[in-house]
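Hey, resending since the last one bounced:
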Amino acid sequence: ENLPVLRENQKNEIIHSLKDSNYQYIIEGDNYPALSALNISHTKKFDVIYIDPPYNTGNKDFIFNDKIVEPDDSFRHSKWLSFMHSRLTTAKNLLAKGGLIFISIDDNEQAQLTQLADEVFGTSKKVGPLIWFYEGVNDNAAFIKKTHEYILCYSVDDNPSLSNELIDNNVKLSDNIENSVVKNGPKNPKSTILLPKGFPAEIKNGVIKKKDINSLEVDKDIKIKNFKLAEEVSITSGWSSRDILEEFINYNFKPVLDSKNQTTTFIIKKSGNISYTKVRSTSHIISVLRNLGTTQNSSEELKQMGLDFSFPKPKGLIKYLLQFHSNKNAVVLDFFAGSGTTGHAVLELNKEDGGNRQFILVTNNENNIAEEVTYPRLKNVLNGYKNLKNEKIDGLGGNLKYYEIDFVPADNSDPSMYELAINLVDTLCLKENTFKEHHTSKDIKIFKNEEDHYCCIVFDEDKIDQALQKLNNTDGSYSFYIYSLGGEIFDEELEDFISEHPNTISTPFPLTMKNIYKSLK
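The structure tokens again:
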């Protein structure tokens, strides 16, 4: 009975810390109508889509038609497939040429999702299933403990834009760590650090050294003695594994217990960037993903921002997946955005490799997650913040806009079509990336951006000449959207203007009201 439209949220401030007009976006609302609205602004525009849908575990994590699907529901799997089918088919239309979609899932629906994705995208479009070794919390009561999830990857066509250089995520210690030091060691200089058998590092004369590779130097006032080999290392969180120790040495996440069962406070300070070993061909990428962060570390990072969210996906995992696509200026969509990890990963990856990726995150506001977690997290990442230790964390900089899903009548009558048209302003501004008002009146609205691109929206075809007069003495590129129930394209009315302004844009997808109505339905 209603059609979804985007409307800019006025409750949350627009973040504008960079002069360029490349915005990042949050859309609050159910993701299915949000995908329909994006069909107007972003048809075939997204290079990468990543989603982490409900896993349908039976633990009241999946809502269908506003009702929680119980574990004993005999239609539990079919409801989940219906829920996913509508979203994947709509999302497919949003993928650009060469685009990739990644879908996280676990054993509960992995087999069903594979069949569904094969149907929606085609078996020939399957880039390959990935297995994420998540090194996280598992069921201690289970006989076989699960330590992995799946990530299905599909392309929208037969020629995916795969990067020809992907990091080998199974290489942990860097081949290029410069001037790295261990500081703030234990008060007792005789403390012992226990390293697991087979760990590819050694300690000699106060130096933690990757075997046959560059070393990490230790401060002179810290002496590490009584070096021992051990099967495992005890971690204060209660976990014991080689992987967590590797993570401690590389990323400074975990305190280590010394030989007297006392916590040390070794901190790795890196002045150089970690450079992972590269492989030459995507055909050599290992399907098991390791050493890409944990949900525990992600939760701790959010906690340091004063935010609470259970089991967020780690940034390292999302950053790795984003690098599958060869375009460092990729447009990225996550329509199960949760805490906003995908947006955080995009911003960090841009900082690291000089990319200019753009993201759109879609999340509902269940339990106020959009307003109390997703938006505050990205605001902190962009602007900087002080963590719970009162340490200043510098912001990455950038621009962010916040939209909500609204609805207008869908009865296809002339008054309803006009109401739909006047409510498409925010959607068209998003499509054209134009947010600065140049002129606004009842029948004419003109917006521009920093690159002097103008978006001219005319609601009365008799006012086209007036709209063109408002663009006198401007120099740039131009897009016109003219409301017409008859579907005219107004070539004659615009002919002189186009001849004088060759940068006037003609869209390959005519946004007639008929097409808009069909897309939103």
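The radius of gyration is 26 Å.

Sorry for the duplicate.
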